[in-house]
Amino acid sequence: MRIAPLLVLSLVPLGLADSSDFFTPEHRVSGIGVERDDISGPLLDVRTERMIESQTFAIMRDPQALAGARRITGNAKLQALFNAAGQRSGWPPSLIEAISYLESWGDPKAESPSGPKGIMQISAATARSMGLKVVISTRYKVTREKVAVKSASGKPKFKTVTHKTPYTVAVRDDRLSPDRAIPAAAVYLAGLQQKFGGRDWAVFAYHCGAGCVGEMLDLTRRARGIPKDQVTVPRMFFSNSPAWNRELYQAVEQQMQRDYSPTYYFRVMRAEQLLALFRRDPLQFETLFNQYKSDFATAAGRAPHRLSVWLKRDDLVFHSGDDIRADLGKRLVRALERPAFFGYSLNIAPDSPADMESYSQASPSAIGALMYIAFETRRLHDALNAKGEKFVPLPVSSLVESEDFARTLDQHEGLAHTSGQVFDIAYSGLPPGELECLRFVLDDLGWDGYLGFIGEGRDNLHIGCAPTTRDFFTTVFQEAVGKKAE
Question: 20 to 30 A Cα–Cα from 471, which one of 131, 135, 207, 434?
Fold first, then answer.
């Protein structure tokens, strides 16, 4: 699972003055959190590339990803339809097929529980605006039952009652016909491009809707720091934060909570790349697909989150407290305890106080990731300047744990702690502004492929860094050890 230009981002010197009040690492990720207000064109290109790369998980974790690639690229009739639709609309056929791949895995009969249907997953209202016919007929299911009625004689008497229950059937639905749906969707996309002035906004609107994108485009045009000739979806996504272009930030967050539509453009771009990879090297595609299978898959058969892909069963090595105690100084290191300086506090509660020292450890990369998250969260919180709020060191509720201890907690993600690669932050006591900054920083680092996180229970965040970024966060930890010595 390669994450493209890691060193380009992590080793770029930012020239910012270190603070003597709290830990400030020299190795940093550019354009994260508070620094979103100063993203250059080249850095935006790098962040966009990494964002596209990070969408691999969203696509390849689905069991249909491999079969869908075969269906899309191997069907001569579908390929002819994509090519013809491209010629008619002016859109690249590879982009049209990428949308169909994401929407339905190339299945002409696909139906969403929310209503959209067909290979391009078109809603009924949008289909009619495209000129597709969706004709629904109301029919009735007739049932009869005998019910008791009163009689003058007092003897039992029954009568038959007829019930008519209405139901609808599709007399004609062009959405389920690829030879109608594909060209109609392509022309629709071309119309969206003409309306919004960019292919990226058209792709966004295909998922979010024209009204949604109209609002987002207007906010982006009015945002600070965005050149008039660079009003793009990536600029919209990477030019907001709780402390910078807050109105745009809140609009993006609203859409993310609704259906993740602000990330749809990046997902389509990655789908286009993945289909090209399948054509070029099917075995490499299949290898990548297998890398995104989880050892801890849900009943749906797909990885529930990134950590479930990055961690394997062989990583869960600490079965008992003795295993942890025997490892000190090898794979595990003790978390440095200076809350005001490092920005986190240890709120760990093992069954036995004697285990406190052992359970206050994790891998160097996990501790480094924790320190880096605290650093970025504090910087963003300071810039937010929330009235009356003081930064509270992030409460760390779990680091490494033994399998014996984890099983007693009956928590879904508990066993991951037996790797030493993850940690938990209990956020319920954080001030609202700080919690907002923490979640934003986690998202920001997550979209760049540096870490993954999942909510555990009602007030806990379960966090771990990617295997490809462990060296970076280990370097951050080593810097912190040096700063503590100073």
Answer: 434
Contact 268, 99 (CB under 8 A): yes
Q: Which residues have C-beta within 8 Å of that of residue 289, sequence separation ≥ 6? A: 60, 65, 66
Write the DSSP symbol of residue 22.
S
Q: Is 305 within a domain?
A: yes
Residue 255 CA, distance from chain mean position: 13
pLDDT digits (tens, 9 = 90+) for 241-262: 999 999 999 999 999 999 999 9
Q: DSSP secondary-structure letter at 23? A: -
Residue 434: domain span: 298-485
Contacts of 339 (CB under 8 A, 6+ apart): 345, 393
In a domain, 458, yes or no: yes
Rounded distance between C-alpha atoms, residue 427 and residue 398, angstroms = 12
- Model pLDDT for residues 453-482, shown as the tens digit of each residue: 999 878 999 999 999 999 999 999 999 998
Ramachandran area for residue 344 (φ above 0: left; ψ -120 to 50: alpha; else beta): beta
Q: Please state, in angstroms and rounded to a whole number, the distance separating the CA atoms of residues 393 and 387.
A: 18
**Domain contains 247:** no
Helix then strand count (H, E) for the chain reads: 22, 9
Question: How many domains does the structure of the chain reveal?
Answer: 1
Residue where the block lists tokens 């407290």: 321
237 is a domain residue: no
Q: Are 372 and 478 in contact (CB under 8 A)?
A: no
**In the structure encoding, which two tokens stand for residue 118, read together?**
């067909």
DSSP state of 105: T
How far separated are the first and last CA of the chain, in Å rounded?
37
Q: Where are the beta strands (DSSP E) in 418-480?
A: 422-426, 451-455, 460-465
For residues 121-135, give the mean pLDDT: 94
